[in-house]
Amino acid sequence: MKSFIPVTPESDFSLMNIPFGLFRAGDYYAVCTRVGDTVIDLSICHNIDVFNGIELPSGIFNEKTLNPFISLGKAVTSAVRSRLQEALSVGGYLDADIFKSSALMIPAAEAEMVLPLNIGDYTDFYSSREHATNVGKMFRDPANALLPNWLHLPVGYHGRASSITVSGTPVVRPSGQTMPEGATTPHFGKTKQLDFELEMAFVIGKENPLGRPIPIEEAEDYIFGLMLFNDWSARDIQKWEYVPLGPFLAKNFASTVSPWIVTLEALEPFRVKGPEQKPEVLPYLNIDGKRNYDIHLSVEILSNSGSKKTVCRSNFRYMYWNMCQQLAHHTVNGCNVRIGDLMASGTISGETEDSFGSMLELCWKGTKPIQMPDGTQRTFIEDGDTVIMRGWNDTGYGRIGFGECSANVLP
Predict the structure, then answer these.
(1) What residues does each domain of the chain span?
(2) Strands 342-344 and 122-125, how do they pair?
(3) Which fold has domain 21-113?
(4) Choosing from 131, 152, 158, 330, which is the catalytic residue?
(5) pLDDT of 102 higher than 90
(6) Predicted structure pTM score
């Protein structure tokens, strides 16, 4: 398939993608997709009969979140995606001057993208073996970096949903308690160790009743799609507060997501096998086949002076615990999940130093500063910096990506 809308080779939004997002223009909200540098209003598509034959409620594409659309189920959402690919192809339903010059198609630079979900609950996992090992080496015994439970279950914690914001929303440097080196009493003030965490997050697209675990072989039926995710962290606050119950103020001040949800159908060409798991996992976590995804990931730091540097190149395929295992474990006790819930992967690090997914690792607790092109150094993120995350791969017929997940840091 080839779109009549121009798509450059480096665009994340080929016709093979067709992600879902939400934009607003004043009080007007509409579910949308994107091809190249053009955003397509699905509400107008519905009104001009693009989706004839697909059972869709009136006004479904003018809701203020994607939750109602996702709740229709994959049979419907997949049909909508396929119909859009047909309609946006050369010679397709929308390949007509009357549509190209209408409000149906909006330049991406002019579309105000908003958080596409009502996120009722958010869970953050800790599923990269390389990341967990690096942290263990830094803060515990290097010879026994992983805690005893890590190779037996996907470790996770419940995060804060209210502070998840869409790409482009600034992050205010948080305050909290820290215990400086050599001090005997805590200090209160702004964090001096603001960090990013490179993650992916999956969106729950189907609900299970309270008390009914999701069997691992059914897990993918409950995953609508993926987003890029930056789980901002205040390392000095975290170090002082996390014992005995784990992260709190160090994490709940902000998380940033990309505006586009890329469906599992779109990511199908990128399936790969994950790392070998030893020791053998318990039966409820055992699943065969290609359950990881080959998604290239990068992180750039853009300074206030305009100096930019790529500091990390990683890949989602590195994850030790896959999404199916995470969801099966999350619900094995009968926990119910709801449409729009977000499950983040945890920091995604690889084996090489340039693939580490956080400043904590890249600078190894501040001992290896990153040199910026303007002559400044970074051990953590400074005021005025913008952190930009990207994720993509290429099918050979078009690139599939997530766009930018970025945020600027305010003092």
Answers:
(1) 21-113, 122-410
(2) parallel
(3) SH3 type barrels. (2.30.30)
(4) 131
(5) no
(6) 0.97
